[in-house]
Each structure stands twice: as C-alpha cells, then as structure tokens.
C-alpha cells in the first residue's frame, strides 16, 4: 500500500488513542486499520503502541516514528503544493481554553474554513495546557506566561485579571476600597486555577498576594460569572470573560488601580520547521483576526 497512507493511519491511531476512533476518522473499518498497524510494526521491527483496554499509548519507538512521520508528511504537503497549486488543504488540529475558544477561537476557525474549503479543523477546547507533541496539536492558544520556551510563540495580545461584582451586590454590601477590604465581603473563587486560594494585586508598585476565604467555590468560569451576575458576591476573572457584562453594565470593575500586570495571550506552535501551507495560512489568519479583538488590547 501507499507508504504515506500507512503513516497517516499510524498518526490517526496515535492522535485518536484507539483503533475504533482512528477508523471512524479515516472512514475505514477497524480490521483494516489493525492490519495496517500490524504491517507497519513488522516493517519497523518494533512495537509502536502499548495496548490497554481503554487507550493505546505510543512506545519510545512509536514516539520517534511519529515525529519523523509528521515531518515527512509536512514535507510532502509542501512539495505537492507548488506555487501553481498552493491552496492550503488537509487536517489542522487546534487547541484553546474553553471559554476563550467558545467566544473567540470558534468564530475565527469558522471564518477560516469558509475561506479555505479544502482545509479541515479539529478544534479542541479544554481548560488545560494540552501536550502539543503527544496529542499532535498544530497550534494552541495559550493565556498566561509560557512554561515551555522550546515552542515557537506569537503574541496575540493581552488580558487582565479583574475583580468584578454586580451593581446589586455593591448596593447591598458596598465597594471595597483596597485589596485588604475583601476579607469583609462575600467572595467567589474559581478553582480552575491551581494553587493557594489567593488573589494577587499591585500595591505601591509591588505585587502583593491576598489570601481569600471564599463563600463559594466553582470549577467552571461560566458558573463563576453567573454567580457574580446574580449578585452573590465578588469574583475575579479574566477581562475578556467579563467584557460583555461590563459593557452592558451588568458587572462593575473593582480595585482597578491595584490590578497586576497584564497576562499575555499567545498562539503556540511546536515548531516552524516543515510547516504545512494550511498551518501557515491559519497562523496569518488568526494573528490578523485577533488584532481586531478589543478584548485582547
């Protein structure tokens, strides 16, 4: 069979995590996918996956082959897309934080797909930093300082950590004049961010951590916003998350002069080497589209 097709099947198994999901993605039968993997392992002379009842995990040999296969397929895409045949095509895998992805990345992706009809996008939304290499992600939107400096990053803008409450809550309980005054208020804590229950502020030019004792803890940012909108208490969210409610006057921004430094928003790539035309087109499109977003300024 076509050796490039064999590698595409292997990567589909790796990215999907099991034979059945890879078969559905490729529109093939599970037995056919199994036969292809078996033949490839025989050709390589090593097991490419450790098999369990729930998921296939790449062995060291599988991880090495995956890296080479992605590079080879990207080279092939670049080779066949000559100047006279340069339309981006193929599958693009993109990751983004859940709420940011719903509100801003999904519309960007939909417009991108309308412009490039031969591209398919697998958009994965989750409030965790996906492993770009292990999960085969081509590009990821990240909010916050970057922990892996080996990746290539394009800054798209910035957001702030803002303290908000509804006008009804403020009418009932008053507005805190300084971070220390939060101890006398009803607080809503988002537990989506790991670490100590504290909010950081900038006081007299220096960062200061304020320990908070929340009345309500929630592990979903939409729920945090709903609780604040309902007048339960004071919450701390990212500025883009509260932007519609702030604009509508449903929430009020508090302690503004104590806000810490802005948080960067990046588009992160595993590498710029052997970049497929579809990825290059998406990067250019996403950077341009994000430049138009008020929430990132």
From TrEMBL:
Residues 1-59 form the HTH lysR-type domain. It comes from the Bacteria. Pfam families: HTH_1, LysR_substrate. Keywords: DNA-binding, Transcription, Transcription regulation. Gene3D superfamilies: 3.40.190.290, Winged helix-like DNA-binding domain superfamily/Winged helix DNA-binding domain. SUPFAM superfamilies: Periplasmic binding protein-like II, Winged helix' DNA-binding domain. InterPro entries: LysR-type_TF_proteobact-type, LysR_HTH_N, LysR_subst-bd, WH-like_DNA-bd_sf, WH_DNA-bd_sf. GO terms for molecular function: DNA-binding transcription factor activity; sequence-specific DNA binding. GO terms for biological process: DNA-templated transcription. Belongs to the LysR transcriptional regulatory family. This is LysR family transcriptional regulator. It comes from Zemynaea arenosa.
């Amino acid at each position: 069979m076509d050796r490039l097709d064999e590698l595409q099947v292997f990567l589909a198994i790796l990215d999907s995590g099991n034979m059945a999901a890879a078969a559905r993605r490729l529109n093939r039968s599970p037995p056919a996918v199994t036969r292809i993997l078996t033949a490839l392992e025989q050709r390589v002379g090593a097991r490419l996956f450790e098999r369990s009842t729930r998921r296939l995990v790449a062995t060291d040999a599988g991880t090495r082959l995956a890296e080479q296969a992605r590079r080879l397929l990207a080279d092939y895409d670049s080779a066949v897309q000559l100047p006279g045949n340069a339309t981006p095509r193929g599958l693009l895998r993109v990751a983004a934080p859940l709420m940011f992805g719903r509100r801003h990345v999904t519309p960007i992706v939909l417009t991108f797909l309308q412009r490039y009809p031969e591209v398919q996008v697998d958009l994965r939304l989750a409030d965790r930093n996906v492993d770009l290499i292990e999960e085969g992600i081509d590009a990821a939107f990240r909010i916050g300082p970057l922990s892996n400096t080996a990746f290539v990053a394009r800054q798209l803008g910035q957001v702030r950590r803002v303290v908000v409450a509804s006008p009804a809550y403020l009418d009932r309980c008053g507005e805190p004049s300084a971070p220390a005054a939060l101890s006398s208020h009803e607080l809503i804590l988002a537990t989506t961010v790991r670490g100590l229950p504290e909010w950081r502020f900038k006081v007299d030019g220096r960062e200061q951590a304020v320990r908070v004792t929340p009345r309500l803890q929630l592990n979903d940012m939409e729920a945090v916003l709903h609780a604040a909108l309902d007048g339960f208490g004071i919450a701390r969210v990212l500025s883009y998350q509260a932007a519609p409610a702030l604009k509508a006057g449903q929430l009020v921004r508090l302690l503004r002069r104590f806000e810490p430094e802005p948080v960067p928003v990046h588009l992160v790539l595993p590498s710029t080497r052997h970049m497929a035309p579809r990825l290059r087109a998406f990067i250019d499109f996403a950077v341009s589209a994000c430049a138009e977003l008020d929430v990132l300024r």
